[in-house]
Amino acid sequence: MFGMKKILPGFAPPLKFSYDAVLIGGGLHNLATAWFLAREQNMNSVAIIEKNYIGYGGAGRNTAIVRANQRTRENIPLYKEALDLWPVMTRELDFNLMFYNCGNVNLLHSEAAVKAARVNVATARLMGVESHLLDAAETQKRVPALNLSHQITHPVHGAMYHPPGGIVRHDAVVWGLARGAAENGVHIHQQTEALGIETENGKVTGVRTSAGTIATPRVLVSAGGYSAGLIYHMLGIKLPISVLTIQAMVTQPLKPLLNHVVSSGAYHVYANQTLKGEIATGAHMDPWPNYTTQTTAGYIKHQAEALIELLPCLAGVKFMRSWAGLADMTPDMAPIMDGNDPVEGLFMNCGWGYFGFKSCTAAGRHMARFVATDQCPDRLKPFTLRRFENHRLMGETAALVNYTPDN
Ligand SMILES: Cc1cc2nc3c(=O)[nH]c(=O)nc-3n(C[C@H](O)[C@H](O)[C@H](O)COP(=O)(O)OP(=O)(O)OC[C@H]3O[C@@H](n4cnc5c(N)ncnc54)[C@H](O)[C@@H]3O)c2cc1C
Fold this sequence. Notes:
- The structure is a single chain.
- It contains 9 helices and 19 strands.
- It is of the alpha/beta class.
- The protein has a domain at 4-63 and 170-239 and 332-395: FAD/NAD(P)-binding domain.
- Helix 2 crosses helix 9 (360-373).
- The two termini are 25 Å apart.
- The structure holds flavin-adenine dinucleotide.
């Protein structure tokens, strides 16, 4: 990653024979966990093992949208905590994470959608998260470029408006957390693949890597789209996770025209204008499980058509780049954060789907507490793997009645 050697002191330290904890995957969640382990839990003998380079996974591919208006009482407090942490982390890491608090406008295209949104807005407010219902005229005021015609495929009836959300620069988060963790003694080993987790009598004893075996009593797997396959192949534990591709793209830079994150479930599209002026846009994930990070012409065409209907001023604007990444989806669209079950010393933090950027600060902080103390923090308890066998799934999928999935 560009300039990484400069900003990471002691970058690429030699692999030690043993660590107190080994974190598999150099993505958002492990970088945040490592930083909190070192900073708040005084655990410094920590290694991150990354098979490519930090930020290779969803960390460097997401569209950087943050918000806290999830749907359920288990999820909203976690996402609210994560959202509140961006300015705090910017200060504590002494690294500009570029939090742009522009607010999120989620378009509603039918009276049924407006009714459903009332529940979302009420739930968010009940949990202390600011959220408003706008009618069509108020929506137009917020997004003047929006097409309010009734002649389009899905006319706009109103919107949910969530002022505290916005965008954070995703690569700045990777760099800031990596630098902060390294400065606090964490070893980050790139180009090092975890090949196996060693156990004895039901307890973790080490990690086999492409650079040698490390002795450790604690392993945290947070490898994004690769987590489920990795845990199955290394330990034979099956996670209820499907892996799907999400595509995204940016246009050429434009004058300021969009001052909120705008999304539409009916059109399967969302868009925001980056600080550089590009319109970053994405939408639905591919409809079948796969591990590809390729983009497709059909998707780019869909995106162009949907955007132009909603924001006609974008007609003729060029897409400059497109890319794709993996989303690890659970059946209830909530993550799995668990530890010491069924293997002592094994922790997992995965299944984030398309919500893993906005959550990484709070999830990393709680996972650090869990790994350091072996006590599962209350906030993480609902996210246990056992919920799938105990029929205690969360209703977070309901959030998607109104939301474009990948934001
Ligand atoms: C196009 C797109 C748009 C998105 N938009 C948003 C958004 O706007 N907002 C939001 O909240 N979320 C968004 N997401 C989701 C978000 O990016 C992910 O949920 C998040 O990155 C997951 O973080 P992670 O730390 O779990 O994994 P990742 O960031 O994916 O990191 C996992 C790392 O593990 C490494 N790894 C894998 N196997 C091994 C191994 N055997 N040994 C060592 N290392 C290994 C990989 O190389 C990778 O670097 C989006 C995702 C995509 C693809």
